[in-house]
From TrEMBL:
It comes from Streptomonospora nanhaiensis. PROSITE patterns: HTH_TETR_2. SUPFAM superfamilies: Homeodomain-like, Tetracyclin repressor-like, C-terminal domain. Residues 11-71 form the HTH tetR-type domain. Residues 34-53 bind DNA. The keyword Transcription regulation applies. Pfam families: TetR_C_13, TetR_N. It comes from the Bacteria. This is AcrR family transcriptional regulator. Keywords: DNA-binding, Transcription, Transcription regulation. One of its GO terms (molecular function) is DNA binding. Transmembrane segments: none annotated.
Length: 192
């Protein structure tokens, strides 16, 4: 597999391909989008797509990796100005609500990818798993900072609230799902 785009500068053509992949993979689904459509929408040849990414699997990995990087930067940026573990935990749900309203019309790109990529060894599933592990680790660190007696157990519960809010927002059209999850999280947190 070629070096992932995050590890090397993107050419203008590769940037167009990746931007197009972001739009099409997220809105239509990975398996519904062929390389011909990607090339056409990016305004380049299919050969150029393969020259820049090597395979559709590598492009899927680049798409998911970049989406993950955007989410992590968004969330950590949102938390940067918030003090205290308890407040920072609650702020993750505020960030999630804002992200979903702006970027989440079809839910979590990582979960969507896992649903479309049944091979547990697909490199795209690895990206998704790493994002969820990172999120659980963030919650564990924040739970410890907040003085939780069992940071691992609290992190697991917070991750489930986070993921459940995403599903409720997307599937049920519940615009307040992240706020509801925030209130549930608040009830789980140590007082102090």
């Amino acid at each position: 597999m070629p070096t992932p785009p995050a590890a090397r500068p993107l050419t203008p053509a590769a940037r167009r391909v990746l931007d197009t992949a972001h739009e099409l993979f997220y809105t239509r689904g990975i398996n519904s989008v062929g390389m011909d459509l990607l090339a056409e929408r990016a305004g380049i040849t299919k050969k150029t797509v393969y020259d820049r990414f090597g395979s559709k699997d590598a492009l899927v990995v680049a798409y998911l990796t970049e989406r993950d990087e955007r989410w992590r930067a968004y969330l950590t940026g949102h938390l940067a100005g918030v003090g205290g573990g308890r407040e920072r935990i609650l702020a993750t749900f505020d960030a999630l609500g804002a992200w979903l309203a702006e970027h989440g019309t079809r839910g979590c790109a990582m979960v969507n990818a896992c649903a479309e990529l049944p091979d547990a060894d697909h490199p795209g599933r690895r990206v998704a798993r790493e994002q969820k592990e990172w999120t659980r680790g963030l919650y564990r660190d924040l739970a410890a900072e907040a003085g939780a007696g069992d940071p691992d157990a609290l992190a697991e519960a917070l991750l489930i609230l986070h993921e459940g809010a995403t599903v409720a927002f997307t599937v049920l059209g519940a615009p307040e799902a992240a706020r509801t999850a925030r209130r549930a999280a608040e009830a789980l947190l140590p007082q102090g």
